[in-house]
Amino acid sequence: MDVEALKDTLPAPATEPSPAPRAKGMHWLVVVINCGMLTVGTTGGPLITRLYYSKGGHRQWLSSWIETAAWPLLLVIVVASYITRRARDPSAPLLLTRPRILLAAVPLGLAMGADNFLYAFGLSYLPVSTSAILISTQLAFTVFFAFLIVRQRLTASSLNAVALLTIGAVVLGLHASSDRPAGVSRGQYWLGFVLTLGAAALYGLMLPLVELTYKRAAAGGRVLTYALVIEVQLVMTFVATAFGTVGMVVNKDFQAIAREARAFELGEARYYTVLVWSAILWQFYFLGSVGVIFCVHTLLTGIIIAAFIPVTEVLAVVFLHEKFSSEKAIALVLSLWGLASYSYGEYTDAQASKKKPASPEPQAS
């Protein structure tokens, strides 16, 4: 549970021994799990949200609120971490995170709530294909803000991946305007276009800020553990849910849920099933994204999100019966090529760092 971060952004002192093989194995297990959750959330979240709208759902505040409504699931991890610490040390604190770091997570939670609303509102007027294309632009925002905020090093492989993914998104968007959903006016379509682009920009800013929060949490020689990351994520999702709750109360969405469920095209029971699975999938998305930031860095999170957008396109064809054009096939190839380029660059950098001899320590005077 208390897996430590093993990455360049949080280097260990030169006098410490290298992590044990067991610690490295646990670290990479956490990496795989979080990448898997991010992949499932990235592909499944937009699809089930669009299913809600296409089958009779109309509540944007409800749709945005449900994205973080599963935050109590994080309590299981926090409680398990606390029980484990208490078993080792009866005087262990209830929370690992310092109060000022938890306070810093509050504005991030408000930003997350606003981003959820922008995305949910935009998706109510756009098909999944168009929304996915616009959300892919968050990669460019992530690269820009990561360079400014956390000084993320840009390599040739990462820039090549960004270029390929961007070209794929452009190719995919050449005929996106012809995919306007039934019953959506031209004005509503472009409103959704602008709101979704705004959501991409805001999320691209949030990712580096989350990584910066982790750095602040690890300041002063403190160990950054996965349990601490979950505590920060718990505060963020709780605040985002509270933000959405206020909007639902003002918009009277709670009173409309039962009425909307009865009118849902797939039936009342499946209406609630869609909402529950939407909450679970979006929790996977947010938990996976912060986990990848913790284990690796911000840019990989953006790369994974962008790389699986074509997969979302294919799933939209299968489950939502959207058209699969030649542009989508080209975009799929370019996106997979971009992911392969980035992965190969990370592998070669890791191999080069292993071969580089360690610099000798200066002798004490």
From TrEMBL:
<feature type="region of interest" description="Disordered">
    <location>
        <begin position="1"/>
        <end position="20"/>
    </location>
</feature>
<dbReference type="GO" id="GO:0016020">
    <property type="term" value="C:membrane"/>
</dbReference>
<feature type="transmembrane region" description="Helical">
    <location>
        <begin position="156"/>
        <end position="177"/>
    </location>
</feature>
<feature type="transmembrane region" description="Helical">
    <location>
        <begin position="226"/>
        <end position="250"/>
    </location>
</feature>
<dbReference type="GO" id="GO:0005345">
    <property type="term" value="F:purine nucleobase transmembrane transporter activity"/>
</dbReference>
<feature type="transmembrane region" description="Helical">
    <location>
        <begin position="300"/>
        <end position="320"/>
    </location>
</feature>
<feature type="transmembrane region" description="Helical">
    <location>
        <begin position="28"/>
        <end position="53"/>
    </location>
</feature>
<keyword id="KW-0472">Membrane</keyword>
<comment type="similarity">
    <text>Belongs to the purine permeases (TC 2.A.7.14) family.</text>
</comment>
<feature type="transmembrane region" description="Helical">
    <location>
        <begin position="65"/>
        <end position="83"/>
    </location>
</feature>
<dbReference type="InterPro" id="IPR037185">
    <property type="entry name" value="EmrE-like"/>
</dbReference>
<dbReference type="GO" id="GO:0015211">
    <property type="term" value="F:purine nucleoside transmembrane transporter activity"/>
</dbReference>
<dbReference type="InterPro" id="IPR030182">
    <property type="entry name" value="PUP_plant"/>
</dbReference>
<protein>
    <recommendedName>
        <fullName>Probable purine permease</fullName>
    </recommendedName>
</protein>
<keyword id="KW-0812">Transmembrane</keyword>
<keyword id="KW-0813">Transport</keyword>
<dbReference type="Pfam" id="PF16913">
    <property type="entry name" value="PUNUT"/>
</dbReference>
<feature type="transmembrane region" description="Helical">
    <location>
        <begin position="132"/>
        <end position="150"/>
    </location>
</feature>
<feature type="transmembrane region" description="Helical">
    <location>
        <begin position="103"/>
        <end position="125"/>
    </location>
</feature>
<feature type="transmembrane region" description="Helical">
    <location>
        <begin position="189"/>
        <end position="206"/>
    </location>
</feature>
<feature type="transmembrane region" description="Helical">
    <location>
        <begin position="271"/>
        <end position="294"/>
    </location>
</feature>
<keyword id="KW-1133">Transmembrane helix</keyword>
